[in-house]
Amino acid sequence: MIKIPLFPRTCFASAGGSIRIACLGVFVLAGIIAGPRFQISAEEAVPERIIEGTVRDDEGTLPGAVVRIQTTKYSAVTGPEGKYELAVPGSVSGMVKLTAWAKGYFIGGPVKALPGEKDVTISLERHSRLDNPEYEWLPSFRSAGSGEDQGCAECHFRGEAASGPALPVDEWLKDAHSRSAVNPRFLTLHTGKDMSGRRSPFTRYRRVQEHGLVPLPPDPEAPYYGPGYRLDNPDHTGECGACHLPVAAVDAPYNTDPVSVRGVGAEGVTCDFCHKIWAVRLDPDTGLPFPDKPGVLSYEFRRPFEGHQFFAGPLDDIAPGEDTYSELQKDSRFCAPCHFGVFWDTVVYDSFGEWLRSPYSREGTGKTCQDCHMPSSGAELFAHPEKGGLKRDPDTIVSHRMPGAADADLLENAVSLTLEAERSPEGIRVRTEVVNDRTGHHVPTDTPLRHLILVVRAYGGDDSELPLKKGPVLPEWCGSGDPGDGCYAGLPGKVFVKLLEELGTGVSPTAAYWNPTRVVMDTRLGAFESDVGEFLFVAPNSGDIRIEAVLLYRRAYKKLMDLKGWSDPDIVMESAEVSISPKD
């Protein structure tokens, strides 16, 4: 076997047509085929199958450039003098299209060549090292007054009425990132209103000699619709927009009002935003974002100057167009600035940090955020063929659906639950075990409003519920009332939660983590951690016994959901049932 030097990443389709359309072709994040360098047989590597040539810029030849047969895994790297030899496998017939990329340059090509050709030159053009703050962001959809003749959807949107696999914009529209600016939980928490538009009173304060003004809990005599950032901070908007409205906040991270943003800024985490990210600034001592630089404050951008475009993506063969390859697009660091957050020295959001401390972050054997949240979509195209989309191996095209906290399929495959039960002289002994065996961060993660509720119940032969003799019960904030209405307080069970308490008011659990808080408890499961629950139920005098356990995912505390009018249903992550006969 003859080994052909290969770049350890593969690529994507080129986009034809105008420069604008060609550049839009790169906004898709695609899967990358990892693993050992590709090998071809000695028979395939005969001289008449080798293309030789040079990669150069306007000053000379370029060593270390990646030359690739476009849309394939076949590639070579230029040597010290900028020359390459690329073997064309026998399975590829006729003329091929070659692309080239080097760090600091746009992807060049495609250049047509036949196997056996010599002196095939591919020219590269440098891209700017500077960012243009005056750049007008591209809309994901064509919009009136946007100043653009098309949005990303022009090439990458199929629509429900059309047949065939979804394209990236179709998927993005179903993803929470496309709704981050208009998420009703975010907006009602920011404004202090409920879903009907009713607003809670502004926060009351009392003066304490040693501390100055100290906030008071909500007035029990006044109408109350839950907390709100603007209730506590009526004179400024805060830095929430740095993650939820990044396009609007990139040049005003501390002064972006979510309620007043319109146009591209209201599209949430947009296509153009992600593919203008060039670098992430992390603390070299911790590997985490700096606590005072959330979201856009930790990103470095490459917004182009007038007359040009710039798109960074995970593929090195997108051509023609002003596109370049960026390995950051497939790196978990890409996600870090918006998935790590510190408020008043309390770490509130930490899914990136949880991943970083877990076995999933180990190089070579771990998984990135993108591996789990951007799996292969099964599609062969990421753009319309008439817009330059080329057919690909489905494994190289990933979904922009980015499943997360609202995705039942993802949650149902996040952890495992086992249930065991036996008779004993004391009663019915029940043992549960929940294992985080399929998630690279804590479960649940990110906002501490999210929590898991494990409900364990035992029934006699007449379906009467057996009383609990010993074991944990669910706290008041799981909801007091009818279990049929989602109120589980007092029932046998366990909670998995990061519970915060406001230092000023003593309110706990609190959703107002923009105020000083402390962590009261953290029972969530880290990667590969497990939790065992033990329960003892009163045994009936006769008859069969049935025990059931249900693990529920809840988006927010029951009382808060009722105050705000949020209607997100619980999601059953796991369930189990066992029976005991009189003979057992």
Count of beta strands: 27
Provide the β-strand percentage band. Answer: 15-25%
Unreliable parts: 1-39, 144-149
The dominant shape is globular
Mean pLDDT: 88
The biggest beta sheet, please?
Answer: 4 strands, antiparallel
Straight-line N-to-C gap: 64 Å
Radius of gyration: 28 Å
Computed structural class: alpha+beta
| Helix count, DSSP H or I runs of 4 or more residues | 12
Sequence of strands across the biggest β-sheet: 5-4-7-8
Helical content class: 10-25%
Overview of this protein structure:
The protein is of the alpha+beta class and 584 residues long. The protein has helices spanning 19-24, 153-156, 168-172, 184-191, 229-232, 241-244, 246-249, 271-274, 351-356, 369-373, 408-412, 558-564; strands spanning 2-3, 39-40, 50-56, 66-69, 75-77, 83-87, 96-101, 108-113, 120-123, 205-208, 212-215, 277-280, 299-301, 311-313, 323-325, 341-343, 346-349, 416-424, 427-435, 451-459, 468-470, 493-496, 498-502, 517-522, 530-537, 545-554, 571-580. The strands form ten sheets. A four-stranded antiparallel β-sheet has the order 5-4-7-8, with no helix packed on it. Strands 18-19-25-21 form a four-stranded antiparallel β-sheet, with no helix packed on it. Strands 22-20-26-27 form a four-stranded antiparallel β-sheet. The longest helix is centred in the N-terminal third of the chain and has 8 residues, at 184-191. Mean pLDDT is 88; it is low at 1-39 and 144-149.
